[in-house]
Structures are given as C-alpha cells and as structure tokens.
Amino acid sequence: MLNTNSKTQWCSGKETSQFLWAGMCQDTLHLTSLRKELAMAGLIKRRETWYARIRWYESDLRKEKQIPLKTKQKVTARERLSIVNKVAADIQSGISFTFPWMHDENETTVKRFTLKDAASKWIEKRTKGSYRKNTLTINKTSLHYLSLAIGGSRALRSIDVDDIERFIDFLRAKGSSDTTINIHLRTIKAMLRYYLRSGRITAIPYIEQIPIAKTDPIYITDSEFQMVMQLDTLANFYKRVFLFYRETGMRLREPMIARLNGDWIDIPPESKTHHARSIEPHEPIKQIFIELKDWLDHGYGSSLQNAGDHISKKFKKALRLVGVSESKHFHSLRHTYAVRSLLLGVSIYDVKLLMGHRSVTTTEVYSEMNLKRVAQDFPSLKANKETLPIIGIGDTHLGDTKGYMSSFIDERRAN
Fold first, then answer.
1. C-alpha atoms less than 13 angstroms from C-alpha of 25 in its C-beta half-sphere
2. Residues 41 and 25 sit within 8 Å (Cβ to Cβ)
3. Strand (E) positions, 59-162?
4. Residues near 239 by Cβ (< 8 Å), separated by ≥ 6?
5. How far apart, in whole angstroms, are the C-alpha atoms of residue 148 and residue 184?
6. Distance set, CA 171 to CA 141, 167, 207, 327 (Å)
7. What's the CA gap between 58 and 40, in Å, rounded?
8. Which of 31, 167, 180, 273 has the greatest number of CB atoms lying within 10 Å of its CB?
9. Is 328 helix (H, G, I), strand (E, B) or coil?
10. What is the DSSP letter of 300?
C-alpha cells in the first residue's frame, strides 16, 4: 500500500524522504559550498608581489601552500588566482602544478615529484649534514636500486607496499642477503619518513624488516688462517695486512682514517660508532700498520678507487683458494679478534673498548657462544696459554702466528 504521507523530493541530484529532518537539503548544500570555499585559494602580498595562498587542515593541523603569481598587479593576480582555484583541491591532496606564468607554455601542467627528484634532493640534504661518507654511499646505492626496480619516474606519493615487495624481489634476484636487504629498506623508509614530515607526501607504505635468524659470529679458525698465510699465489704484503686486521680487530676502513701516535694507533670518531678509541699493538703489528698507511697514501693503494674493497676481495679470493666456507668473509677477521681475545682471558668490557662497540650488549654476542667448543678451533692459543704474558687493554699477541710469520713479516711491500 502506498504511503501517501511519504513524499519524495530531489536534493543535489539525490532522492530523499520527507521523513528526514527539516533543512537536510539546505545543510547538504551549505556543506558542499563550505568544502568548495575551504579549497579555494586567497591572495597574499609579499614584497610587492602577489601569491595565491591555500590553507587546509589535516588531523587538526593547519597546512598552507603558497604559489607565486609573479605579478605586482592585483588585476593580473586575480586572473591567475582563478586558474589556481581550479586545481586547489588537487594541490591540497599533494599534487604539484606548473602554471602558464611559470614557464613558456600556455597551459597548466601537473608537476610530478618523482622518485628521482626525491632521491636527488634527499641525498643533497644529507650530504650537507654530518653523515659519514660510507652511509651516504649506502643511501645512494639503495635509492639507485629502488629506481631500477620500480622506475625513477614514478611519483613519490604513489609508492605502495607492492612496490616495496617488488624492490625486495629485485634485491634477492641480485643475490643480496636478508641483512643487506634490511639495510636498503632502512634507507627507503628514512627517505619516505622525511618527505612525510615535510608534507610532500601524506602517507607512506608499511615497510617491515626481514626477520634475521640469530647466529653465532663467523670467525676464521687457526687452520684456515694458516692455509691463507701459506698460499704461494698471495703476495706477502697482503698476508701481513690480513694478519694486522686479525690482531687488531679494526674495521675494514678504519686504518684509512687512523693515525699512529707513538706506540698507539688512534682511531678518530669518524668511525662507525662515532667514538674515538686507541689500540696499542706489538711492534711487528705497528710496523705493518706503517707499511699499510704508506701503501694507502703513496703506493698502489692510492691509485685504487676503493682500496678497502680491493683488500676485502683479495681476502675473499684467498679464502676460496683454500676451500673455506662461502659464509666467511673479510669481516670474519674482526669476529676472530673478538673470539681470540675472550679465549685469552680479556674481559668482555675490555673487548668492547678495543672493538669500539657503542654498547657492551653488542659485544656479548661473543660471550654467548660456547667458548669451550670454540677453543677447539684455536689449538695454538690453548697450547701457548700457559706461557702467554698478561694482555692489557690495547695489547695484541701474535699467538699462533709466530711459527709462520717470520717468512714474510720483514719483506718489502708488494702490490
């Protein structure tokens, strides 16, 4: 049965019932008008030049965008303001536009803030900051890989979770480990968060770190290191360099910034943890450091684009020649130093200082290993432990190297 008390009427193109409260149509039209008004730009004068100013609110925070009208005439400014108002709502949503008076063209065009634009500006800003050169290199590499994976012309605001997954797949196809992928993901997240804070984008995709299974540090055993030292195809200079790193626990690039001060090697705060530290090596190790610095500053190393990578690759090649597990690499020498120090009775706190760890929590990963089992991989330390002198902070001991080191320790530098 038709309800004669219910009449229908049209309001803004939508059918409504008279049972709705009075004034529904008027309120709807008022709100629509208010939204349009809020989206419209107004005029503001700065230093005799007119600008279009758009204001809006996001999460109770007022935001503002000013667009230069490039005129001192108010009549011209009003004409250009009307053009800005046509796209004011889009400007609020984060889209950038180039207007006719800004270039030689006669039409308004969308100016996309691309991944390439974002990466360039972000790296430029960080370069002016106090970030380490190695950090900036990692940042540049990460953004380069992202551009290859999803395209540098992509609008920054359009990057989503699918793009991040595509990026991860791209890195895995390159053979990157999960740890390396996480490093690249941190760079991407840092950049996106920067542009979110600056208002360039209004949201960022969820970026989750890949879970890494906890494993013991990978070290070089006595027998493995001795096999490397006995390689006929490896120049004795590199054997001495590898010995230096194992006996000092220095990071790959720390010798390049370190300086010899008497009997101490001083490592400045430009190192990874931004904490200065000093190492007091035995005389043979100190002489190797002097030789290495000369090679880096005046020898073959000075002609290399990346001397650190050259040394690292030499060690990896040597490990492969003697059949060592692929999981072992140059940084394993640093792990070896930590393990050997603990086996020699150096306290966990002294090892932390010697290695330059920011927190002892980082160093504790070595003490959590089954050191009694690990000791089997360093029989020379066990055999010589009764005759070893007490090791103080900064000292190193050649230990198992005494037997084979004399054959190359005094030779001249080789390429």
1. 12
2. no
3. 61-68, 96-98, 109-111
4. 228, 229, 231, 408
5. 13
6. 11, 6, 15, 19
7. 16
8. 167
9. coil
10. G
Cα gap 274→276, rounded to integer Å: 7
Amino acid at 34: L
| CA pseudo-torsion sign 238, 313, 304, 289 | negative
Closest to 264 (Cα-Cα) out of 282, 280, 284, 275: 280
Phi, psi of 393 (to 5 degrees): -65, 125
CB 65 within 8 A of CB 73: no
Is 307 in contact with 296 (CB distance < 8 Å)?
A: yes
Which token pair is 247? 């006996």
Provide the CA 58 distance to its chain's centre, in angstroms: 30
**Do 336 and 219 form a contact (C-beta atoms < 8 A)?**
yes
pTM greater than 0.70 (yes/no): no
- pLDDT tens-digit profile, the chain (415 residues): 444 444 444 444 444 444 443 444 455 444 444 444 455 789 999 989 999 999 888 777 888 889 899 999 999 999 999 988 888 887 776 677 788 888 766 776 666 788 999 999 999 999 988 787 888 999 999 999 999 999 998 889 889 999 999 999 999 999 999 999 999 999 999 999 999 998 888 889 999 999 988 888 999 999 999 999 999 999 999 999 999 999 999 999 999 999 999 999 999 987 777 788 999 999 999 999 999 999 999 999 999 999 999 999 999 999 999 999 999 999 999 999 999 999 999 999 999 999 999 899 999 999 899 999 999 999 988 655 544 434 344 444 545 554 445 455 555 444 4
Q: Check if the beta carbon of residue 248 is closer than 8 Å to that of residue 281.
A: yes
**Dihedral angle at the C-alpha atoms of 92, 94, 100, 104, nearest 10 degrees?**
170
In three-state secondary structure terms, 16 is: strand
Q: Where are the alpha helices (DSSP H) in 250-345?
A: 254-257, 283-297, 307-321, 332-343
Cα–Cα distance for residue pair 79/66, rounded to 1 Å: 16
**Rounded Cα–Cα distance for residues 141 and 123 (Å):** 11
Interaxial angle between packed helices 222-229 and 307-321, expressed in degrees from 0 to 180 and rounded to the nearest 10: 110
Of 228, 227, 241, the closest CA to residue 415 belongs to 241
